[in-house]
Amino acid sequence: MIAKIVLASNNAGKLAELQAMLAPLGVQLVRQSELGVSEAEEPHRTFVENALAKARHAARVSGLPAIADDAGLCVDAFGGLPGVDTAYYATRFGYPKGDDHNVRALLEQMRDVENRRAALVSTLVALRSADDPEPLIAVGRAVGEITREPLGAHGFGFDPVMFIPSFGRTFAQLPPEVKNANSHRGRAARQMLQLMRERWFQGIAS
Prior knowledge:
It contains 5 helices and 7 strands; from the N terminus they run E-H-E-H-E-H-E-E-E-E-H-H. It has 206 residues and is α/β, with parallel strands linked by helices. It has a single domain, classed as Maf protein, CATH 3.90.950. A 7-stranded mixed beta sheet has the order 2-1-3-4-5-6-7. Strand 4 (117-127) and strand 5 form a beta hairpin. It is globular, with a radius of gyration of 17 Å. The mean pLDDT is 91. Substrate binds at residues 9-14, 71, 156-159, 179, 184-185. One of its GO terms (biological process) is purine nucleoside triphosphate catabolic process. Belongs to the HAM1 NTPase family. Mg(2+) binds at residues 41, 70.
């Protein structure tokens, strides 16, 4: 029985969200830094390729099953960019890397843009081992519109500027449990939970 899975990320927000979402399986997620795993190279142009590279690296170094998330913001007016470069978006415009700087840079670049439709996309990849020939892959999307200023105090990343029409609020204005249930990562995690039950944890009740 799998009891521990290494998370191929050092992001505390991702760890908290994914640990809560995968709790029904009774597994413990451990950040890769706690196991001495360095960050993997992410040379690819798609979320799934980068997530697979991160999961494979973490599994190989730790010897444990691994799960990796590659996520980003895809803005319609920018042809789907920044995409896989989301984490470093601010650095393209002279700002340091960081969530607040990313939000500032995005709002500046979209100041005169009318089409504000965008999607937050999360791709989760899980491997039983570095050589697992059948990775589990789950993709979640949350579609909304980019606001003209940050709103709300919850979440991280682009949550303060991601307005979700069905709620009439940004992700950062929603209670964490509501956001987690409806976010791109939440949707991907629900798919991953089902895939893990079917493939890795047969017999565990829903």
